[in-house]
């Protein structure tokens, strides 16, 4: 068939336009075509032509709409700027935690989800630094804390700002966004969104070190003999549903009612909220193998070896102290900042 299409007799009957078309395939014709494409590539962006062949940064909110003073930047503005496909990834950070934020961001960037990240800054130093390096990706919801308030993981200052978390999440839900919350002492090894099966209201992880079967139930675990569950409040995914809003409101209520009992620690309050709203909220317990607690991942070598390749987000908990957490990340090859800072949207922090 090819021989017939390009036989001399076929070419002898070709029109003048066909001959011109074939001439474009000559050496000079190809050079002309390349030059034309280069010209289009350079000139069309300047005239805002819809034919512009290079991709533009996709954002539902333009850089020109960002405020000149970051103190005026609202949560609604920030969420609109960063949201992709209706989803925002949120963390809350104070200035001393910036190295951990950068480490977490590198791992998020490796999964191509960094553009969805919104940093809720707890002090103005964090707000200005993040937005200087990465405009539009940090917002502060007053009141601001002192920049050194939460230096120690587990300290009273640390709990002071984590206890504000459910209010931030509720606001985002009320704005209509899916919300993933992460503590920044986490590292992503895979894309977690592929594990958010179904359309449940709230997804969360178990903080227990007892090994579950790989096909374990995704229901809220039953309370122990003391009526307590051990769900982690450090990795949560919420859909903008009435059920998720009920859960957040109950969490806020539990924190307000149990201030002395919790000493500001939001996790026990989150567990009580889960148990008290279980009949009203569609809950989903994420895979233990995919989202292991630090007490399992860092302390059970046999389990880690047996579940190799299944880990998605690793949480560096079950250890106290800023320096201790950093050292453990170093020891397990999960402290990425030293050699891979260029992969973070913030770059290298001085």
TrEMBL record:
GO biological process, one term: rhamnogalacturonan II biosynthetic process
Cellular component, GO, one term: Golgi membrane
GO molecular function, one term: UDP-xylosyltransferase activity
Top-level taxon of the source organism: Eukaryota
The keyword Transferase is annotated on this UniProt entry: yes
Domain annotation Nucleotide-diphospho-sugar transferase: ranges: 113-329
Enzyme Commission numbers on file: 2.4.2.-
Localization annotation: Golgi apparatus membrane
Lipid bilayer topology: Single-pass type II membrane protein
Main location: Golgi
Keywords attached to this entry: Cell wall biogenesis/degradation, Glycosyltransferase, Golgi apparatus, Signal-anchor, Transferase, Transmembrane
Family: Belongs to the glycosyltransferase 77 family.
Protein name, UniProt field: Glycosyltransferase
């Amino acid at each position: 068939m090819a021989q017939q299409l390009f036989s001399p007799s076929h070419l002898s009957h070709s029109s003048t336009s066909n001959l011109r078309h074939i001439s474009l395939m000559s050496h000079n014709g190809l050079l002309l075509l390349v030059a034309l494409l280069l010209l289009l590539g350079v000139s069309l962006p300047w005239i805002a032509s819809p034919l512009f062949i290079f991709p533009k940064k996709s954002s539902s909110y333009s850089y020109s709409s960002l405020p000149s003073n970051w103190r005026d930047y609202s949560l609604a503005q920030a969420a609109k700027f960063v949201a992709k496909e209706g989803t925002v990834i949120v963390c809350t950070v104070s200035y001393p935690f910036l190295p951990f934020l950068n480490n977490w961001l590198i791992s998020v960037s490796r999964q191509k989800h960094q553009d969805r990240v919104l940093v809720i800054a707890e002090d103005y130093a964090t707000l200005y630094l993040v937005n200087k390096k990465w405009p539009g990706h940090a917002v502060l919801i007053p009141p601001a804390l002192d920049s050194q308030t939460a230096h120690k993981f587990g300290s009273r200052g640390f709990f002071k700002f984590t206890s504000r978390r459910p209010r931030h999440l509720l606001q985002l839900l009320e704005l209509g966004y899916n919300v993933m919350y992460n503590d920044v002492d986490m590292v992503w090894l895979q894309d977690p969104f592929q594990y958010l099966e179904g359309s449940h209201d709230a997804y969360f992880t178990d903080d227990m070190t007892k090994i579950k079967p790989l096909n374990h139930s995704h229901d809220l675990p039953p309370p122990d003999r003391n009526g307590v569950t051990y769900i982690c409040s450090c990795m949560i995914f919420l859909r903008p549903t009435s059920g998720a809003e009920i859960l957040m409101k109950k969490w806020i209520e539990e924190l307000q009612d149990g201030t002395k009992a919790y000493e500001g620690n939001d996790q026990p309050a989150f567990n009580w909220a889960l148990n008290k709203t279980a009949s009203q909220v569609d809950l989903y317990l994420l895979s233990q193998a995919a989202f292991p607690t630090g007490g399992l991942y860092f302390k059970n070598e046999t389990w880690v070896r047996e579940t190799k390749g299944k880990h998605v987000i690793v949480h560096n908990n079950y250890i106290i102290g800023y320096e201790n957490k950093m050292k453990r990340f170093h020891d397990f090859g999960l402290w990425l900042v030293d050699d891979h800072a260029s992969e973070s949207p913030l770059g290298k922090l001085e």
